[in-house]
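About this split. The held-out portion is used to measure sequence recovery: a designer receives only the structure tokens and must propose an amino acid at every position. Recovery is the fraction of positions where the proposal matches the reference. Here is one held-out target exactly as it appears in the evaluation file.
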């Protein structure tokens, strides 16, 4: 009986806990025919050049430290988008689009979460941050259309709570325009 009362109390505390408000992004804005967003305040944003063929394309790079100016010119120059290596407290987002069909469009098995005005999942990944000193690697997968999945690979090196909160505010504010 005591265990049941204890669980009920914990459930009430969780239900009454205030929701955490993340900062509204106020940094550089990006707008295209299919998505719009603003980077977190103080972050840098670079649009990547898109190859003319292939199913996966780099889309945008975001970071809370300096990015190379050349990232918009050629994809080869964007494979190392940071001016320096990822510094302690640093967070880099590598946003890519992937065209797909059938089962290749399935998201990884994970609980659904809200990412902007879409549903997606987040998972830990082993790749995507090669050559960078990172303490965390994750990826956010979002079904944009039945034939397109966007992947936001996050490379982090001991990010602060404020950096994490700014990133989550960014995710909340993404707006895909494709119905």
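Reference sequence for scoring:
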């Amino acid at each position: 009986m005591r265990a049941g009362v204890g669980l009920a109390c914990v459930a009430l505390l969780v239900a009454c806990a205030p929701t955490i408000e993340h900062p509204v992004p106020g940094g550089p804005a990006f707008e295209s025919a299919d998505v719009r967003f603003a980077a977190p305040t103080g972050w840098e944003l670079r649009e990547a050049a898109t190859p003319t063929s292939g199913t996966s394309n780099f889309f945008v790079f975001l970071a809370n430290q300096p990015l190379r100016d050349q990232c918009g010119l050629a994809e080869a120059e964007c494979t190392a988008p940071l001016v320096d290596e990822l510094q302690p407290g640093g967070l880099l987002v590598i946003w890519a689009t992937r065209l797909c069909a059938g089962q290749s469009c399935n998201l990884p098995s994970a609980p659904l979460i809200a990412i902007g005005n879409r549903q997606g999942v987040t998972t830990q990944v082993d790749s995507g941050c090669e050559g960078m000193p990172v303490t965390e690697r994750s990826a956010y997968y979002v079904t944009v259309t039945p034939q397109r999945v966007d992947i936001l690979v996050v490379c982090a090196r001991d990010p602060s709570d404020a950096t994490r909160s700014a990133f989550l505010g960014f995710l909340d504010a993404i707006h895909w325009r494709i119905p």
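Annotator remark: Residues 24-176 form a domain with the Jelly Rolls fold (CATH 2.60.120).
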